[in-house]
Amino acid sequence: MNLSVCMIVKDEEATLARCIECVKPFADEIIVVDTGSTDGTVEIARSLNAKVFFFEWCDDFSAARNFSFSKAECDLVMWLDADDVISPENAEKIAELKQRDDFDVAYIKYAAAFDNDVPTFVYYRERIFRRSMNFKWRGFVHEVIAPAGRRVYSDACIYHKKLKSGDGKRNLAIYQKHISGGCKLDERGLFYYGRELYFNNLLSESIAVLTDYLKVGGWVENKIEACRTLYKAYGKLGRKEEAVSALLKALSYDYPRAEDCCYLAEYFEGENQIGAAIYWYERALSSKERVENGGFVNVDFLVFIPAIRLCVLYDKIGNYALAEQYNEMAGKAKPNSASYLHNKKYFQTKSTER
User: Fold this and answer.
1) Whole-model pTM?
2) Which of 114, 140, 284, 306 could be 258's S-S partner, Cβ–Cβ 3.0 to 4.6 Å?
3) Confidence at residue 167, expressed as pLDDT on a 0 to 100 scale
4) Domains defined for the chain, CATH in brackets
């Protein structure tokens, strides 16, 4: 099958060429929808043989993405942002994926944060669609296409590599504009609106919205993430008991996620309850959580963070052998970590003393 790559862009002259060059190995058509650039974005797109269209921005990402999809002519349509990067290895996997005829939606991993180019924050996104299914984006911010049809999960990964910091208030402003215009947010909208309030340090407002969200329906992964955000918001306000209660509520939705176990351990560590802290860090290491479950996954919480903290705690109570074992576990996850290397030198010195 053939494939159209669709992008909506504005003032992306710094990254657009990089992105288009990445998709050339598998794209049969490249659609670039410009929403009001004042730099050289349009000229760059045209010089690289992309089909360029124009869309008047209306504070609605779904409307823009649906417009871009409407211009596609291939069997499959794929969305990208201009600051996304696809390695040759992952481009090859996508090229192989488009030859399959057993799916209507393909989910591909999205890496959005990194430590020396190693992904630390990864989640699956709906990425490639059968055009004949006429999928539609919904949500004016944090847009999504609802799951439907036959689905496959690829082990390819797309890197979201920004070169410039975005406007941190943009999404919040869009939400507030639509709300002031009479829009009533659905369950997913409440979740993301509450998170945007938190990101903009409107903590009490975030707590109110996310608390309301937890009273209605919604995806279990979003419920857990909402509890996690409440924990952070309460923590910033110095309301420790309510923060811990929010984390404990997350446990009522599903098995414990590694990140939440680490936050509980951190709380007990702060209370000097070493045994409880060790218990929760060890639970983090035994978590079943994986990127394939669909939620946001901060990879460091799966191994590195609990292992490095267990190293410190076991050293603190005099179990140096176990402390060293956990440090080596952390080192396997992040061999260049300054903490791991410092601890390694510490244990070598301690061994000499013994």
Assistant:
1) 0.92
2) 284
3) 80
4) 3-160 (3.90.550.10), 168-254 (1.25.40.10), 264-354 (1.25.40.10)
